[in-house]
Predict the 3D structure of the following.
Amino acid sequence: MTKSIPPHPVTAVLSGNDLLVFDVLRAANGPASAYDILDRLKPERPRIAPTTIYRALEHLIRAGRVRRIESLNAYLAATEAGDRAVVFAICDDCGRVQERDAGTEVGRITKALARDGFRPTHPVVEVHGRCGDCEAGSNSVAGGKP
C-alpha cells in the first residue's frame, strides 16, 4: 500500500523565479500572458528569459497556484490553491475573468467520458460572454433594453 505524501507548503517547493512570477500574477488586475509577465519583470531582472517565465508557470500550475486560460493564452493566480475543476467566466467586453468551482458539473462529464474509456487529465471549462457590470452598463445606456 502506497502512502500519500502531503504537499509541501508553497514556499518550500517553489523557486525564487516561481515566486516572482506568482507575485506578478497576484498583483495583476486580470489574466496575463507570459510576455506580459516578462515585461513586468524586465526592469528588476533585465536578463530574465521567456523560458524562465514558462518554466515558472509550469511549476505554479503543477502546484495549483496558477491556472491557464486556454482561449486567451494567459495565466491567472488561482483564487484557491489546488487541482480542482473550475469554470472561467470570461467577459468579452471588459476582459474580466471570474473563476468558479465546477466540481459537480465537470465530475458528471468526466464520469461519462470514463464510461467510454477516456480518462481526462485536466478538464478546462471556459465560457465567454458579458459580465453583470457590462450587461448592467449597456442596459442603462440603452434605456434598460438588452
User: Anything to note?
Assistant: The two ends are 59 Å apart (CA to CA). Residues 1-12 have pLDDT under 50 and may be disordered. The longest helix spans residues 50-62. Helices lie at 10-13, 16-27, 34-41, 50-62, 103-115, 132-141.
